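User: Fold both of these, please.

Assistant: Here is the first one.
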Amino acid sequence: MNNNLYGEYFSPLLSKNKHFLRVMKLVFFSLFVFIAGIFATEANSQIAKVTLSKENTNINELINDIERQTNYLFIYNINEVDLNRKISIHAKEKSVAEVLHHIFKDTNIVYAMQGNNIMLMKGGKRMNKVPNSDTTPVDRKRITGIVVDEANQSIIGANIIIKETKTGVITDTQGSFTLEAPVGATIVVSFIGYADKTFVVSDKESYKIVLRETSETLSEVVVTALGITREKKGLGYATQEIKTNALENKNSNLVSMLSGKVAGLSISTGAVAGAGSRISIRGERALSAGPSSPLFVIDGIPIGSGAGSQTASAQINEISPNDIESMNVLKGAAASALYGSAAANGAIIITTKKGKKTGGLGVSYSGTFSRETPLILPKLQDQFGQGNNGVYVGSNFGSSSGYYPSGKNDNYDESWGPRFMGQPMIQFDSPTTNGNRAGDTYLSPEIRGEVIPSEWVAHPNNIRDFFDHGSTRIQSVALSNSTEKQSFRLGYTNTRQEGLTPNNDIKRHSFNLNNSIELNKWINVDAVVNYTKTNRTNVPTLGYGGISPMYFFCWMPLSHNVNSLKEYWQRGGLEGTRQFQNMASYNNPYFVMYEMSNSSETHRFFGKLGITLKPIEGLSILLRGGTDNSWETNCRQESYYKNGGNGYYNNNQFQSYNNNYDFLINYIPKLGDKFGLSVNFGGNRMESIYKELLSSTGSLIVPNIFSFSNSKEKPSVSDRRSKKVVNSLFGSLLWDYKRMIFAEFTGRND
C-alpha cells in the first residue's frame, strides 16, 4: 500500500523564513514518532528479490508490484515523485536496490530504507552507476554525526547522501544520523532553505555539520501590480500580504475583514447587513468616500474602487471570502503606478484560489456562524421624562384629529419634564377601558375608551431593545483537482445575514470557477469566472432626517417605552393609514423599518481569460481579456408619511459594463551572478459603459399599492448613459546588483 504521509511536510514552497523552519521541526517530530529511525544503507535492500517485466509502465504500478512481492512499504510526497513517468524494466530475481537504481536512474529522486519502509525524496546528484548485488562493498565503515544550523539548533529531516549514488539517510528528531559509506566517499548534506554542504569520509567516526541559511531560498515573494511577482526586499514601496487563513470572522462585508490586519489601512464599517465600508490607505483625501478608496484588482482585472458607503451596496462585497487565496495591499501611488490615476490611493490585489493536487477529486466544505450585538450605545439621563419646565400633561400627543384637546408638552421632543417617581400619568401607551391605547387619538372617545394612567418611570434600555441580535451564516463547498498540466476549482458560497436593525437582511449566492491548462511548454491558458446574485432588504438610512430610524432616538424621552411602538398602526380600522406614535413630528422607528422599506437585487458577472506564451527562456507574453458586468434593481416603498401624505414609490435600474483588454511582455535575461534585470512592457484598453433609469412618484391613489399605474400624478423619469474609453501604455525596468542594491523605473501614459 502506498503511503504519502511524507506529503507536504517537505514541500519547499512552505519554507520561506527561519521561523517557519522552526515550526517545521515540530511537524517533523510528529512524523518521526510514526516512522522513527528511518535511515538505511544500501545493504538492507540486497535481501529481498523481485521479478519485474514491464514495457512502458508508470512508476506507480511498479511501486505497487514491489510492495506486492515484498514486505516493503513506500513513503513519498506525491508532489515530488512523478508517478506517471513511464519506463520499461526486465528484472529477474534482482534486489530491490538494483530495481530502484534502474527506476530512478537519471532523476533527482533518492531513497532511504529502514526495516520494511522505503522513503522516496528529492536530493543528491544523478547517479549513472548501478551497484552490482553480487559484489560486497570495500572499506565501508559506519559513521555517525549531527546536523545543526548556525544557532546550534538541530535540523530534523536533513538529507545525508553518498555523492554519485542514491544511498542515504535522513536525520532523526535530534538531528543525528548513522550511515555506512566507503572511506574517501563524498557525503552531501542538504535541507530546504539551507546551502548544501559536503565532507569526505575519513578515519573519523563522528561528524558535526553546520548548515547556513540561503538568502535566495528565504526571499519573500509577493504579487504586485499587473500580477507581476517580485521579491519583497526589492520593492521601493510598502506592501503587505494577507493570506486567506488570516481573514477571521468571515462575513458578507469583505472589506471589514481587513480591519486591524494592515498597517495604515483605515476602515469604517456600517452596522447594517449588505452595506459597504469606507476604506482609505494612509489617510483620507476627501469628505466623501470615493476619492479616498484604493483600486481593487481581482486576478489581474481592475474592478474599480467600489468599497461603497456605510449605507449603500459595495461591489467588492460580491466576492466570496472563501474563494480568496491572498490579498496584497500596495500602499501609495508609487506602489500602483502601473495602474495609472485609478490607483492614486493605492491598490488591493486579490488572488483567488486555484485547484490543489490531490489523489482524485478534492471536496472541501467550510461553514461559519456568528452572532452580533451592538458594542457601544449612547448613555442617556434617566432622571426626568418628557416635557418642559417640569410640566407634562398627556392628551392628544400632537395629533390633529379634533377629538381630544391639546395636552401640555405631550408632543415635546426633549426631557425637561417631571422627575421619575412612579406617579400616575397619561402617556401615549397608557391602556383604556375599551382595550385600546391613549395614543389611538384618531378613534372617538366612545370607541377608544377612557384612559387609565400608567406609572411615570424611565426606560433606559430603549435603544438596546430596538436593535436585534444580528447573525451571519456562510456555507461554502468547493470541488478541486490539479494535475501536472491542469488545475481546476469550482466553488459555491451561500451567505445569509440578519442585521442588527429590524427587517434588515442579505441573501447571496456566489459561484467561482478557476481553471488553468498547460497546453504545452510554451502555452498556458487560464480562465476565471464569477457569478453572484445578491438580495438586500431594508438597509437603513443613516443621517439626519425622518426616514432614518436613529433620527427618532435623538429626541425620544426615556419616559416612552420603545416596545410599545412595535404595533405601529392606529387601531379601530385605521390600520394601514395612520401611525401610532408619541411625537407626531417624527416617524415611529418600527414604522420606518417595515413600512418605509427599500430592497435591491444585484446580478454580477466578472472574470478573465488569459493566454501566456513562453517562446524562449526568460521571455513571457501575456494576452488577457477581462470583464466586470453588473445589473441592479432597487426600489423604495414608503407608506403614508407621518400622519398624512400619499406615500412614495421609486424603482431604479442600473447597468454597468467594464471591459479590459491588455498585453504584458516580461523579459528576464541572464546577466551572470552579480547583476539582475527584469523588463516589463504592456498596454491596456479599458471600456466602461454605464446606464441608469430612475423612476419615482410621490403620490399614490390607493395606499400601500406600489405601482406606477397607482400614481396620482405623472411619474418622474430620468435616463442617463455614459461611455468612457482609456487606452494605455506602461512599462517598468528593475535592475539589481547581487540582490542587495535595486533600482526601478516605472512609466505609464493614458
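And the second sequence with its predicted structure:
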Amino acid sequence: MRRCFFAFELPLLIMAFALMLSLNGIALADANGTVIDAAEYIDMEAPDCGLQAAIDAAFEAGGGTVNVPEGIYPLRRGLVVKSNVRLVGAGMDKTFLTPARAIVRINLVNGGPDDEGWYRVDTIPDDLDVGSGLILWRGHLTGHTGYLRPAWVTEVDRERNALKFEAPYGVPPNLILAFGDSAALAEDVSEGDTEIHLKNASMFKPGDELTLGTPGNDSRLERLFVAEVRDHTLVLESPAKKDFGAFPEDGASFGSALSTPVFAVFPMIHAWEAADAAVTDLTIKGRDWEKIRPANSRFTLGGIHLYQCSQFLIEQVAVRGWHTDGFSLQAGNNLSIIKCEATENLGHGFHPGTGLQNSIFDENLSEDNQSAGLYYCWHNRGHVMRNNRFVRNRAGGITGLGHPGNRNNLIENNLVAENGGPGIHINGGGPSGNIIRGNIVENNSQSEAGRSPGILISAAREDALEYTVEENIIRDTQEVPTQHVGVEERHGERRGGLNRADANIVRNNSYSGHIKADVIVVGKKTVVEEADQIVVVENRHDPQEAEEAQ
C-alpha cells in the first residue's frame, strides 16, 4: 500500500505543475490574440443576443478574447465556445446569461375533465393554441421522468378558460400542466432529416436551439438549431443525426414513459472538442423553480456542458438555480475549474465524468444543490480536488467516487459539511489509488441523523480497495449529532456476488463528536493507524456479520 501511495504522489505533483503551465500558456496566447468587444455585436432581439457572432468572429480570426459587457442577456439558444477563444464577462454578478423562454404552470380548477372532456384551468397563455405541446406533471415537481407524460392541445376555449388535449400515454393523477418548454412532433424524425414537422411550431423563431428526445452522453447527437420556421415545420441548420419516433409504441425514451417531445431547453454554454479555450467572469442564472421547471433534466443540459474538451479554463463563473447540473464536464482532459460557484441547482453542483482526466478543481463553492455537491461519474482519472467547499447539498458532499474507473484522484483540503448524505461517498473502485487528505468533514447526514458517516467506503458497485484516508478532521460539532460515524467501510453484494471494502489505509485523522464510532472497518487487510480512543470494529469480513455490528 505504501509503495502505491508514494508512486502516486510524484506523478500527481508533476501533473498539477504541468496544468498550471498550460493555463499560463493560454493567457499568454490570448495576450497576443484578437480582442473583440461584444458590445459591437449585441442585438437583444436575436436568440443569442448577438453574442455567438462575436465568438465566431474570434474563432475565425484564429483565436482571441470576447469581452461581454455588464448586463443581463436572455438567450433562446446556448453559446457555443470554440477552440482558442476566451469568453470573458465583466465579472461574476455583473454579466448574466439567463433563459429567455418562459415556462408557465397551468393548474386545474375542477380536478379533472368534465363530461365533454374539457379541463378547466386557471390560466391560458396568449401563445398557447391548438397543437401546442404540454408536459403533464404528476402532482408535484419531481425530477423522475416516469411521472411525466407528453401531450398536445386539441381545443381551446378562452371564454371558459378550458382546454382539451391528447395524451397518448395517459394522464397522471393530481395533474399539473406545463407549457413553454416543449413541442409535439407530428411525424417521426430520421437521421439526415433537415426538417422536422411539429403539431404547432409557433413557439420557435429562427436561431432557436432545441433538444430532440432525451439526450445521451454526446450532446452533439441531439442538439439542433433552427434556421427557418415554415408554418409547422422547422428547417434545421444541420441534419438530424439520430432517428426519433414521434410516439413510440412502448412510450419509452431513456427508460421512462416520456416519449420524444421537442424541448426548448439547452446548456447556456456548451462546447465540444474545443481546446485552449476559456469561460470566465460571468453568472448563469436559471428560473424560479418553485412553480414549474423544464421536464428534461439530463446532465447534458447543464448550465455549462463540455464534451471532449482539453486545456479549457472555467474561472469565476457562477451557475445558480439551473434545472439540472451546474457544471457538466464530460470526457476530455486538462480542464481547470477555478473559483467557481454552483448554488441552488436542481442537479449536482459539479459533474465530471465520461472519461475526464487530469483536471483541477480549486477554490470552488458547491452549496444548496438538490443532488450532490460534486458527483464523480464514469472513469475520472488523475483529478486534483483542492480547497473547495461542498456544503448543505441535499445528497452527499462528494459522491460516486470509485465505480466505474475513478482512479488516482486527490481530494485535499476541502470543507465538506452539513450535506444531506455522507460527506464523501465511495461506491467501489479497486484498486483505486484515490487519496482523501487534509479535509474537514463535519456535520453531514442531515437528511437522516445517524444514517450516513462522514466518509463512507462502500463496496456497493465493486470492490473498494486501496483508498488512503489521512490527516482529515472528521467531526460532529452539533448539539444533536447527525454524523454518527467518522469513517466507515461496508462490504456490498451485487448480482449475487460479494464486493469487498478492504486494503485501505486510515491514518492520522482527528475525530470528535461521533456517537456510534469514529472508525468502523470490515476489511482484513485494511490498516488503521489512529489514536487509542478511536472506537474501531475491525475484520468483520462477512456482510451479515458486518451488518449486525452496525
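The first strand starts at residue 34 and ends at 37.
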